[in-house]
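Appendix B. Worked example

We walk through a single record from start to finish. Start with the input: the chain for DYH5 protein, Anthoscopus minutus, length 329.
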Amino acid sequence: GGWLLLQNCHLGLEFLNELMDTITTKESMSEDFRTWITTETHPDFPINLLQSSIKFTNEPPQGVKASLKRTYSAVTQDLLGVSKMPQWKPLLYAVAFLHTTVQERRKFGPLGWNIPYEFNQADFAASVQFVQNHLNDVGIKHGVNWSCVRYMLGEVQYGGRVTDDLDKVLLNTYARVWFGEHMFSENFCFYKGYVIPKGNTVEDYLQYIEQLPVIDTPEVFGLHPNADITYQTNLANETFSTIVSIQPKDSSTAGGETREAVVQRLADEMLEKLPPDYNPREVKAQLQKMGAFQPINIFLHQEVDRMQLVISRVRTTLTDLKLAIDGKL
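Next comes the structure step. The output line below is what the pipeline stores for this chain.
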């Protein structure tokens, strides 16, 4: 009746076949038993296990509003009040905005990051924990050590995943421009219309996030407006490719015929045009009349034999295809 969790199964595909055999051949099993599998996409993943499973995917939300809303939905009031330092709440929001930015830039492909990085919620949690510990260590009298904060965010917490030099420069630029004493001034903003809200409760922040635009301009992330053209084009192409790849077999063509009906009609037409099989006796008799041992007639006999193989193979293939469409093969 317990639950079994197998993680990173793309690293042990051979074991999954053993797992499938164990589950399918088990005589009795508790109704409360569940097997959870986490894996990355892999072309050699056992298809029978994949088809018999319920699939879950966890994709990051699109847009600053959706991403911040998801982040602050997981923030508790206890976390918001964990530090008495006045810099704590603005820093928490700034880290959340940085987390949103690094994830959103991935959708722009090479325009966003030279190399795609798998930034995730663990990076945000580790950054928040560092900021909290740092504020607890320095205290109100000493203030925030901004060099330390920028280094930890740009080089360790998020920068630890970054391997490209120019990507590292970009990440450190975000840390330098957004994190400092200037972030507490009235004029500070991440981009026009995107500021650090003031509030004492999680609801205050969620209310501010709710009024943010649903669709963000690429300039919010430091990109040229034309970057959105590339993103929208790639997104449309990917969407259409996905639709075509999962198109059901009974989808209709422009003429109203299903794909199977078109294949059936073409197979019938080819079978009608296909010549009848050669009669070996008639071929032999005709060659004897023309001189069976003349070089040209020997060559003709060989060609007739080969053509008969082609005719037989085409007729068998088309007949089997029609039977397969009708489900009678």
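Two observations about the output. The first strand starts at residue 3 and ends at 6. Residues 258-326 form one domain.
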